[in-house]
């Protein structure tokens, strides 16, 4: 009997040990820590028959892809070996109560000075999908950018059939000249800087450009297999159309939020946005061009050249000339509007769309292009931009530090909820009274309140499409339209059931967009146009979301290595 008891006890102990080990492993998987080293360094890179020094991460252009799982902690040590101050934004990550890891220079941190380092330490909570990272100071994101791939938790499937393979596709822009010098020259004259010389796909412009045979990205596929493309628009100033010759795409995710799948022959993606699509390699094996070209539906100069990469079936010789896709026309407003109307949240029990139905705070922001005095500029003025007629002035210290430590005189919380004057926003072009007021003025929001923000384009100088990005939050795009927003009629047409949820939204040319979000993330959160040109002109502000009553509802203390100004 003793032997049997011993055997039983030994067997039970063995089973318990296995169970505990599996449990510990499971906990480890759920709470993994991913560490990355980002060395910001200058490297000579050649494109379009020209070589020039560019700022890179780890000598790579584009920079490395950050891989993590939902629930992981991520530590990224950024060491700055370049001549410029640096900060990096993890675009689309919510950074709950942890704005210190958000990255925009002078908003949530002072920049990392040459020779210094800073560890971005954050948790990925309740998010999975494709996001991206980029420099958030000056125009350095022209070359300092890369993708973020957040995999679902272990054993949690995609809400669509598992693909056979996947590929990160990042769009960018390339200038022959030093981008910072181009910007300085434009600012000195009070004019827009010279536009880019090419667009790129994964850092390469493709064979339609000179000296680009080596600088063409190719993705190998096998007939009959399905592929997930994780697409990022890292361009500085251009909304882009994208298509693959002979192949439709099924949209399954935008800005790391699953969507109701729909099939399309082309995508529209604004700067700052991401889109995941499924592509079936179901055509006759061959070589097919993937192509990007800008969308611009107003007569404003734009780099309208087409960048290409190759969708390459296995075992097809590279001597086969690829076919080009049919992209929408550069000014195809109808395609743009109809494409965006197809975007819908998945809104399932596992992935609900928690749209705020009751609104605590209504905001109405008008976008304006204008002028400001500049003694050294042509005509004595320079171009500027504003929200509610306020051109934002960047502070000289981080706004989040000023908020956390209650520093006086850095900013005011009197940003108006509506513009100072009501007018026919999208009527005939307005070219008089284009001067704006200036200030570091923020909008204060009560913790956990629900906010509706209507962003209205205007014809001050010119109408134009503007992609707006909100840091620290996702929001629901509940309505959009052309012309002036009508508060008595338009809300009745809102989609409050399954509107798209995202972090960056395009305000249509001469139109408006309405977004809703719950202000449940304490801190200072940047809100700006993601066209770098307009951000530099002052088309930005920030929200101060107050601390909540709970112990986990207040901004965390700053890390010890937070850079100083």
Percentage of residues in strands: 35-45%
Which spans have pLDDT < 50 for at least 5 consecutive residues?
A: 1-28
Count the beta strands.
32
- Tell me the radius of gyration: 25 Å
Look at the helices and sheets and give the structural class.
mainly beta
Estimated helix fraction: 10-25%
Based on CA inertia axes, which overall geometry fits? globular
The count of helical stretches stands at 5
Mean pLDDT: 93
Distance between the termini: 76 Å
Strands of the widest sheet, in order across it, are 10-9-12-17-14-15
Main sheet summary: 6 strands, mixed
Topology:
Elements lengths: L1 H29 L2 E15 L2 E8 L8 E4 L3 E8 L7 E4 L25 E7 L5 E7 L9 E7 L13 E10 L4 H11 L8 E4 L16 E4 L4 E8 L5 E6 L4 E6 L2 E8 L2 E3 L4 E7 L6 E9 L11 E7 L19 H9 L19 E13 L7 E7 L2 E3 L6 H6 L32 E3 L3 E3 L4 E7 L9 E5 L4 E8 L18 E2 L1 E4 L3 E8 L4 E7 L2 H6 L2 E6 L20
Parallel strand pairs: 1-4, 3-8, 9-12, 11-19, 20-25, 22-23, 24-32
Antiparallel strand pairs: 1-2, 4-6, 5-7, 7-8, 9-10, 12-17, 13-16, 13-18, 14-15, 14-17, 18-19, 20-21, 25-30, 26-29, 26-31, 27-28, 27-30, 31-32
